[in-house]
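Late entry, evening session. Most of the bench is empty. Finally got around to the prediction I had been postponing all week. Sequence below, unchanged from the version circulated by S.P.
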Amino acid sequence: MRVKICGITNLADALASARFGADALGFILAPESPRCISPETASSIIKELPPFVTTVGVITSGDEKEIHSLIHGVGLHLIQFHGDFPEKTLRRFSHRAIQVVRVKDEGSLATLSDLPVRAHLLDTYHEKQAGGSGISFNWQIAKKAALRGNVILAGGLRPDNVQDAIRQVKPYGVDVSSGVEAEKGKKDLVKLQQFISLAKEAAAKMMEDSFAASK
């Protein structure tokens, strides 16, 4: 089970996330988001991170040249693609790509591509926001998606529901932003630590149960 903390805007939150055990940090580089930071700010934070923390750039637009420049200029391991990007772009960066699927109903699973992306991130469909709405969706839909490959569950996750979400969906990872915030762009460190700890605890219990069942 991997835990991604998204919407990182400052070094203090980034270092706290890493210290509490986050596997990945998301940096929003989309101007329409209230949690958007500049590539320069993201780069300055990433340079101070300890090793073994995966860095993810979240984008809603950009051509191949711009994406390539972000990866190498900022120091990103992965790119989270929100929106309608050309298939050739996703293929070009498939080894770094997390493709976002905005889930409205079960029909949304039809947009799961067969492209060799690293994972699909399932987020709640919202008419006015690409992500970060803090609203959850039907996890039974996500459970079906998880049978088809690596799924990262997002959308309305909080410390008080993440364990239930993990038990139901059994995703590859979980992603949280607004659910651990004190205000937009600033994390609540108590919620942050609780979320990571509870997610890891649920994953460990799931592994124990699986091992016991296999005996």
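Two things to note before I forget:
The CA atoms of residues 64 and 92 lie 8 Å apart.
The chain has a mean pLDDT of 92.
Will write this up properly tomorrow.
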